[in-house]
Design a protein that fits this description.
The protein is of the alpha+beta class and 263 residues long. It has two domains: 2-111 and 250-262, Roll (Diaminopimelate Epimerase, Chain A, domain 1); 124-243, Diaminopimelate Epimerase, Chain A, domain 1 (Roll), CATH 3.10.310.10. The protein has six helices and 18 strands. It has an 18-stranded mixed sheet that branches. The longest helix has 15 residues, at 207-221.
Length: 263
């Protein structure tokens, strides 16, 4: 069986930056185990599989797999999927509606980029897991928790940039992913994202994390619209907007690869 595959760098305007995601369009779902094998072989932080619904290109079902597990939400692979849908399937039919494990998602064109309409995942104050600050190698100002995530605040951008986490130690302390954030020098806030429990030590640019970050920073800065940068080695830019219980994430994409896989 031959399948089309695309690799798209998300939350960036140029290749070799942002977050690379693989996108595999399907006519019907494959076995879960086969999709997991494909994601492992691709070895991107996420592979998105998309299937058209109701014989129309305007509505799709989307699922996301890391090299190790299926996850309920992924922003950068959704952004990459939108770019593939626009270029290959439905350039004029927008917004695109997606069915997902996290409920309905909507993607629309936003200038020369896209805007993702995702559910907010607001964090609440929490006790930091014992040993986590030591594993990160930093002093934590505040700790919050959202579904699937710990959100840790640091004093400034330099503290976030200089982190050198012990990923093996983090994996023994919690299964939740770790978001570390601080006020930005040139943007509203910066962050980094660590998920050793999902087989991803550091994710370059993470849309799902900004579903947590946006409600936190919107409240802290008393702003609905914010500009964010994830300061991983590759780096990426995300426009964020808080809308009640939803979050709008704006970003761009760059196509890197198009090909065929045989399974």
């Amino acid at each position: 069986m031959d399948l089309r595959i695309y690799q798209v760098d998300a939350f960036t305007r140029r290749i070799f930056s942002g977050n690379p995601a693989a996108v595999v369009p399907l006519s019907t779902w494959l076995e879960d185990s086969l999709m997991q094998h494909i994601a492992a072989e691709n070895n991107c932080s996420e592979t998105a599989f998309i299937v058209p619904l109701d014989d129309t290109d305007e509505c799709w079902h989307i699922r996301w797999f890391t090299p190790h597990v299926e996850v309920p939400l992924c922003g950068h692979a959704t952004l990459a999927s939108a770019a593939v849908i626009q270029r290959e399937f439905s350039p004029a039919s927008w917004p695109v509606k997606l069915r997902s494990a996290s409920g309905p998602l909507i993607v629309d064109i936003d200038g020369d980029g896209f805007v993702l309409d995702f559910p907010a995942n607001a964090p609440v104050p929490a006790a930091i897991p014992e040993g986590l600050a030591q594993a990160l190698g930093t002093e934590v100002a505040e700790c919050f928790r959202a579904k699937g995530f710990y959100l840790l605040t640091l004093v400034n951008e330099k503290c976030v940039q200089m982190l050198n986490p012990d990923f093996r130690q983090i994996a023994t302390l919690t299964d939740d992913s770790i978001i570390v954030t601080a006020p930005g020098d040139r943007v509203d806030f910066v962050s980094r994202f660590f998920a050793p429990g999902l087989g991803i030590n550091e994710d370059p640019v993470t849309g799902a994390a900004h579903c947590v970050l946006t409600p936190y920073w919107s409240k802290r800065l008393n702003k609905k619209k914010l500009q964010a940068r994830q300061i991983s080695q590759r780096g990426g830019d995300i426009g964020c907007e808080q809308r009640n219980d939803r979050v709008l994430l704006r970003g761009h994409t760059a196509f890197y690869l198009e090909g065929q896989l045989s399974v």
